[in-house]
Amino acid sequence: MERIAVRAGRGAALTGGWVILAVAGWLIWLLPGPHLAAVLGVGPSDGAVRISGCHEATDEQGYADGTACVGVFMPRKEGEPQREITLDKAAKPHPAGSVVEVRTAGGRAYELSGDALLTWVSVSGFILGPFLFVSLWLFACARQGRWESVDGYFLGFLASVVGVLVLGVVVAIPVWIFTALFG
Predict the structure, then answer these.
(1) What's the per-residue H, E or C state across the chain?
(2) Distance from the CA of 90 to the CA of which of 4, 37, 38, 126 falls in 20 to 30 A?
(3) What is the pLDDT of residue 3?
């Protein structure tokens, strides 16, 4: 009877680990995924923005949040109306009247920008981190056939928070250099 309980516990832990990873993937796909795809330029351009002005944006707490440009979005698809839109975390301040090819997500326009890449890579990592370490803990429990201590996994999660920020900066640096040289 004890073997049946151990097998059932292993199966539950293994299943739980995969379910948790699936939920993490779904959340990343749903929340930061469209923004990250827009910043990376996945797919064809959604249209262009005729810039009317740029300014240094701030977040809700008043901290600097990159350059935001406001302008009129001219969709690529015919029949869609033009509308006012914000080019979020622009690669650089664009002069008024310039036209920038963009992709859209969440009602905002994006271009390839180090600031935007840093933001959305970090958000993705912060979502993935807790789910990943809980699933790793459950996989270890399934492998051992008993509940493992969570201490090492918690420390790994804390280290991943720093790692996510470092990864975001490492990914953004080449984009910052590229846009400074060629942008």
Answers:
(1) CHHHHHHHHHHHHHHHHHHHHHHHHHHHHHCCHHHHHHHHCCCCCCEEEEEEEEEEEECCCCCEEEEEEEEEEEECCCCCCCEEEEEEEECCCCCCCCEEEEEEECCEEECCCHHHHHHHHHHHHHHHHHHHHHHHHHHHHHHHCCCCCCHHHHHHHHHHHHHHHHHHHHHHHHHHHHHHHHC
(2) 126
(3) 78
